[in-house]
């Protein structure tokens, strides 16, 4: 069974019936949406999604930078003005 990573849950029928209430609840913490008692998804605050997206993008860029640093090619120094 897939773990539910929040304290608030809502059935998908409740979401269909009153989406505004579910969205309001998601402003304070994520809400898990269940369909037939199985996790169907999460509703999260837009600011939280923005932060998560930026962190994922940063992690990808760090991975690229680390891969390039470990490829044993000669490094070229540049100033910020040259970029």
CATH topology: YefM-like fold
CATH class: Alpha Beta
Helix content: 40-55%
How much of the polypeptide forms β-strand, as a percent range? 15-25%
Number of helices: 3
Short structural summary:
The protein is an alpha+beta fold and 83 residues long.
List the helices and strands and how they pair.
Blueprint: E1 8-11, H1 12-17, H2 19-25, E2 31-35, E3 38-43, H3 46-69
Parallel strand pairs: 1-2
Antiparallel strand pairs: 2-3
Structural overview:
By secondary structure, the chain is of the alpha+beta class. A hairpin with a 2-residue loop joins strand 2 and strand 3. A 3-stranded mixed sheet has the order 1-2-3. The N and C termini lie far apart (49 Å). It contains 3 helices and 3 strands. The protein has helices spanning 12-17, 19-25, 46-69, and strands at 8-11, 31-35, 38-43. It has a single domain (8-71), classed as YefM-like domain (YefM-like fold), CATH 3.40.1620.10. The chain is 45% helix and 18% strand.
Features:
Antitoxin; 18% strand; alpha+beta; 3 strands; 83 residues
